[in-house]
Specification:
The protein has 288 residues and is α/β, with parallel strands linked by helices. Helices cover 47% and strands 14% of the residues. β4, α7 and β5 form a beta-alpha-beta unit. The longest helix has 19 residues. The chain is globular, with a radius of gyration of 18 Å.
Length: 288
C-alpha cells in the first residue's frame, strides 16, 4: 500500500498533465468478458482484470475498477480487486474505486477505513461517495481521505436519467441539490484553492448532462476539485460534449471511459492504444 501522503489532488493533476485527462474503467461484466472470449467465472474475471492492469498501468492518469463486478464473485472476486489495486499502485497509476458508498456515523467511518485508511486491505487513491443522506454524513470518510493523502468523488450530477429526480430538486432556499453538494466540496477544498492547487474532494458530473451544470448553477470552478466525468463513448458523450458541459472548468475534468476503451481488448497493446487515443482526444478539447 502507498505511503505517499502527497494530497490526491496534487498527484492527480500531475498524472493528468503526464498522461492526459482520462480515467480508464475496469468493468468486468458478463457481456464484456464473453466478448473477449472469456468465461464468466473467477478465472475469466482474473484474466480480464489483469489484462486491463497490464494495459493501463503506467499509461493513463487513473484507473477506475467498478467494485460490484468483483463483489458478485464473493471473497475470491474481491481478492482479485485487491490484487488489481495493488498492482496498479506498484505501476505508479492512480486508482479510483467506484463503490458509491454513503451512510452515517460509524458506518461511513468504516467505509472510509476500508478503502482510504493507511492499512486498508482494498486501498485506493480515491473512492466514489453518495451524499444523499446529506453531504455532512460523509464527513468521517472525507476527513480520513484528507488525513491519508487520498481523495473522494461525490455524486453530484450523474449520467443516468433517473438522477435528475433528486439532483435537480430545489431546496427551500432555492439552491439545487447538486449545487449544494458542490458547495460542500468547495468548503472541503478551500485550503487547496487558496494555495492554487487542485483539491482532493471532487464531484461526479456526467458528460451527458447537457446544460444542467449551468441551469442548476453548479459552480465547478469554485468547487476547485477534480470532476470525474462518466459517459464518454458508449453512453453517447463525445469530447465536444465535454467542452460544452464543463465550459469554465475544463482543466478540472477527468473524463471516464469504460466500455469504449474495453471493447478494444483482449489484446493488451490495442487496449493501451485505445486508452491513449481517447486521452489524447480529451486533452485536445480540455487543454490539459
Amino acid at each position: 500500500m502507498t505511503t505517499d501522503t502527497t494530497p490526491f489532488g496534487v498527484r492527480l493533476q500531475a498524472a493528468m498533465a503526464e498522461h492526459g485527462p482520462l480515467c480508464a474503467g475496469i468493468d468486468p461484466h458478463r457481456g464484456l468478458l464473453e466478448s473477449w472470449g472469456l468465461t464468466y467465472d473467477l478465472a475469466g474475471l482474473e484474466r480480464f482484470t489483469m489484462t486491463c492492469v497490464e494495459a493501463f498501468g503506467g499509461a493513463v492518469a487513473a484507473v477506475k475498477p467498478q467494485s460490484a463486478f468483483f463483489e458478485v464473485f464473493g471473497a475470491k472476486g474481491v481478492a482479485v480487486l485487491e490484487r488489481a489495486l495493488a498492482e496498479l499502485r506498484s505501476a505508479g497509476t492512480l486508482t479510483v474505486l467506484d463503490v458509491k458508498r454513503g451512510d452515517i456515523g460509524t458506518t461511513v467511518d468504516a467505509y472510509g477505513e476500508a478503502f482510504l485508511g493507511t492499512d486498508a486491505p482494498a486501498a485506493a487513491d480515491a473512492i466514489t461517495l453518495s451524499p444523499y443522506l446529506g453531504y455532512g454524513s460523509l464527513r468521517p470518510a472525507i476527513d480520513r481521505a484528507h488525513a491519508t493523502g487520498r481523495g473522494a468523488f461525490v455524486l453530484a450530477l450523474t449520467s443516468n436519467p433517473e438522477g435528475a429526480d433528486v439532483q435537480h430538486a430545489r431546496l427551500p432556499d432555492g439552491r439545487s441539490v447538486a449545487g449544494a453538494v458542490a458547495e460542500g466540496a468547495a468548503r472541503d477544498n478551500a485550503d487547496d484553492r487558496a494555495a492554487g492547487r487542485l483539491g482532493s474532494i471532487g464531484l461526479v458530473v456526467g458528460a451527458t448532462v447537457g446544460s444542467a451544470v449551468a441551469d442548476l448553477q453548479v459552480d465547478l470552478p469554485a468547487m476547485a476539485g477534480p470532476v470525474l466525468a462518466p459517459g464518454l463513448g458508449a453512453q453517447g458523450a463525445t469530447a465536444e460534449d465535454v467542452r460544452s458541459v464543463f465550459a469554465g472548468a475544463l482543466p478540472q475534468v477527468l473524463a471516464s471511459s469504460s466500455r469504449d476503451v474495453l471493447r478494444a481488448g483482449p489484446d493488451v497493446a490495442s487496449l493501451r492504444g485505445r486508452a491513449r487515443a481517447v486521452a489524447g482526444e480529451v486533452a485536445r478539447i480540455t487543454g490539459v
